[in-house]
Amino acid sequence: MIKKSKIICTIIFMLFLQGFCAEVHSQDSMTKYNEFVKLNPNDPKAYYDRGFASAQIKDYKNALKDYNKSVELNPNNANTYLNRGIIKSELNDYAGAIEDYNKAIEFKPDDFLAYSYRGIAKAKLNDYENAINDFNKAVELNSKFTMAYVGRGLAKVEIEDNSGALKDFNKALKLNQNINFLYFQRGITRVALKNYKSSINDFNKAVELDSKFAMAYVGRGLAKLKLNDYAGAIKDFDKAIELNSENIDIYSSRGIAKAALRDAKGAIKDFDKVIELNPNKADAYYFRGLEKAKIEDYKNATNDFTKAIELNPNYSDAYAARGFAKADLKDYAGAINDLKHSKNLFLQNGDKKGYIRVIKAIKKFQALNKEIGS
What we know:
By secondary structure, the protein is an all-alpha fold. The chain contains 21 helices and no strands. The longest helix has 22 residues, at 352-373. The chain is elongated and about 95 Å long. Mean pLDDT is 92; it is low at 3-23.
């Protein structure tokens, strides 16, 4: 499954840079900046320029040193604070970055970039409400700044305001129709809103813009899964695995699709792969156990459910499934014990359907257990 991401800072930062840094520097070009600093040791611009060049070759620590020196020599330049804030964000110092963005805004209160970057840093610290406020200000200052809408939309996704996020993604795409990530994100948002057919259109566009965008195939596969197009979903998951063979969520999703097509052995292989990549994933053992039970391998199914419970002691479905598997092995006493445990968990979780299902099963197995004992 595609989880809600914590990639707000990284993604938007990359997208900003697509149009923000026109001149690209190399390691070799640093020589001229070093020479300029030697000739002008008290010139804040010399350090600023070298810091900017270092940032472009991802030498963030030296970039930070140069911006620090530039600020020391000239503490009144808004752009220096802005760029130093960006570097601090790249070094995961989001609180320090926010301090620099505050300073940049103090000197240049109409800088929509400073508000946008501050919004990114706040989002990275999970301060989504204040991040949204910053993106609101950026939009107010520049209503055509695509990335402010993207940032605000992503922050809204994190607070589960998917309808609001969709509006922002729509606006961003009106301004820039060539951002494949944005079609993907809008597609995921539409999946969350259960608008599966429209989401597929978005994933199609993301793939059209970048045929190697693995997660777009995953998103489209998940939408098809929701529409019961299991064969189509599997094709998309196959492609995603071809592009990214180490993503456990893709194998999980393909395993679920195969299970829906009653390909138990194929599903088991996918859950085997999930467990190989992450042996602590309780759901993988649970789903693999379900498929083993379908092919009447009840003993190994029971083992998988036991492992799922070991990893998640409150896994109500795993207790129930183990109970049914034990019943298939004629261990009615063990089945009743597991089903009683799952009954209590279903009750705690407010799962009425699960609760009623196991209550009926307990009565049935209690009767069978009496027959054996008599």
